[in-house]
Predict the structure.
Amino acid sequence: MQVNSLNHGDTETLRKKILRAFVSPWLPRVSLWLAPILFLLSFFFLPLSKILILAFNTSALTKTNSQLILSTLGFTFYQATLSTILTFILGIPSAILFSRFNFRGKSLLRALTAVPFMLPTVVVASSFNAIFNQHGLFSFLFPSFILHPSSFILILSAHIFYNTTIVIRIVGNALTRLDPKLEAAARSLGADTFRVWKNIILPLLRPSLLAAALLVFMFDFTSFGVILLLGGSNFSTLEVEIYLRVLKLPNLPLAALLSIVQLIFTLIFSILYTRTINQITTQTAPRFSLANKPKTIKEKFFVATFCLLLSAFFLLPLLSLPLRSLTRLEADRGQRGEVQYGFTTAYYIELLINRRGSLFYVTPIQAARNSLGYASLTVLLSLALGYPAAYALAKPTRLEKFLDPLIMLPLGSSAVMLGLGFIISFGRSLASPWFVPLAHTLVALPFVIRTLQPALASIPERLRQAASTLGASPFRVWQTVDFPIVSRATLSAATFAFTVSLGEFGATLLLTRPEYPTIPIAIQRFLSQPGGLSFGQAMAMATLLMILTTLAILAIEKLRLPNSGEF
Amino acid sequence: MKKLIILLSSFFFLLASCAPTRPQTLTVLTHDSFAISEDVIKTFEAENNAKISFAQGGDAGAMLNKAILTKDAPIADVIFGVDNTFLSRALEADIFEAYQSPALSDIADEFKLDPSNRALSVDYGDVCINYDKSYFAENNLSVPQSFEDLVKPEYKDLLVVENPATSSPGLAFLLATRAHFGDDYLTYWQSLKANGIVVVDGWETAYYTNFSASSGKGPQPMIVSYASSPAAEVFFASDPLTESPTASIVAAGMCFRQIEFVGVLKNGQNKPLAQKFIDFMLGQKFQEDMPLNMFVYPVNKNAQLPEVFVKHAEVAQNPAALSSVEIASNRDAWIEAWAEMMK
């Protein structure tokens, strides 16, 4: 706010003052928020409130229903808490591994841990199944060792598989940003490793640990596909229960009630999350790497153990898909019983053949092209909307403090319910292919904003001021000051949006046009018909998706700036 | 300026004169399993100067949900794939426009479940138990021929079924047991449970993770699937097969017949074209195209089955009978009682 003394009486300054009163600071703020808010209003808040208003009915507030909601909420909390703790047990040592040590294959291993986050649930579920079922990779490698993990353990491992990367990214980034002088000072004063961690590192890491925990918890809390595909509906989280009450045992008022409960909790987590993440950005950021080669035996042992552990945990499920897509399992004709393993490229070749002359057949190239097309549009759209929002959030006023948690909300709302809201809001036009990137942007936008915001906040205002006092135009200021710092964050935000779109199913949200299937939809189609060829083709298609995703993530890793890349 | 106006108006005139030849569009709402051959649909489009646009709305239940929610301003003109377990819900919601199609004369009466001809049957498929032929041959085990057989100790731990709350073949199987045992169906399920029946959520998991004869090579040699699945195993085999690795148990009362319906949606845009498309879907060309695209059977008497169906798929003898009104009014209660019991 401009605080001028009122002594200047001439009309020129008065005019300016009036102009300023109108212009600053609200007008630029509002214009920054205009597009993102309009987008969220029309594609999230309005459709969702429309369906909630239509479906909500006080008759749903019965005793049995509230018991159901309470027990579902209880299980949702239980599995999310357990998953979060387990994710941290693997995630924290991994974060230390990546931030403190250099070793061969580090960037590949790091990329590997990020791949699952972007894979569609169908693929992750089938890769877990490909390992653990009777003739899966596991029993092939260790034929004498029988392992039949229970559904609940499968759910937990899938959650760890998905979310460890969040801990590695957020906590790892904070670790690399710690001022090494603090640690060195403590050590020179005689503190041992335990005391250094207890008194220096952990207190400084607290906001990042909290932020990571909240985000992981939020994803586990709203987990849907993993639970349904690996666990079955006996394990009912809020999200699964909403799905059941919308589609299978229709009871819309109850579904609306469950959705409201879930939204309230998501909002609470979002508020907590944005509070803690804002504490992180104020930390100082040294711009050199702390990572060293492991020196002592203890360090070497730690690096070797965790490299092996991470490779086993991430590589096995990820490799099981390409392996399975090249393996023939069917017993040979006339030869009954014994399963024959054999090498085949038939599944890939068959992907190129339209045997039934089907109208909806697409080549893998076309499916990839559809996926890539939607992903590119998602990138453009989410950057166009995310950039101004992140810019405003970088210097938060009261308006931003209010809006910040709302941006995260789409991540925690039930897709099934929102889908119904979409259909009553947009009707026929929902079948338009243009809705696909819109729906994907809804999911990608929070990630994009979270990636851009810290980078934008890290630009010291005095640099911009210096540039403009030297006579640079606003565009030139942006070009010479902002752009070099933001370009890498922009690239990594773009890649996030890209991979989110590649893996996002989104079919529950929209009316799909069968002529333009994406790769995840093509995978689902193959999985829904019997026959060895169908299954193999699904695996082949999933492998293609995995390769695309890995390439995109390797690109992020290569372009990562030390102070960007957070969610 | 004047030139521009003349140019523009002649352009619009040209556009207007083109209009009669521009194809009219018809939107068809289907479930995700819908598929059709390109040349079949092209024939219809050419003959009627039409463009058919398909929109998929999830599985049969999700699709119907969407149609009911938007019945005042429908998202499509024709709907394909409401089945007999959902039929009365659709009829109650009154989403269809009645249509006395001339093609009805070619359709057997057993499939005509809606006397008012708002929903017209288009295909059917039987949900039956599939078994792994080689497992039964190797273990010298006879194939069960009744529901009562399934609870015998020799079939312990051998059957995987889908959860009726989440899967449509799962529901069909529950309905078959309900039709056979009446109110005692839960007692029967109790003995199935005691005999180690495995329940999973979806057909995909059951088939590719649990079933021993699929390429998943799972632990159970019996699965609730479709009577046409053995034909699909041959059609989609990685290596050419002369014999299907699986077969269906089609004994009396053990299968449930799913009949799918099409209908003109109320308040749709182009009723004459919508009706023509219904005639087309009930006609021979489309009916003969369906089996290999969706692995269902035609309802049109004149439609010929493809060879792979004739050789490798069987039709159920006396499938279980339950009226769609009875199903609609009880399905949720039956499912919830079942879920409670299986906990």
Summary: Chain B has two domains: 2-124+258-305, 125-256+314-342.
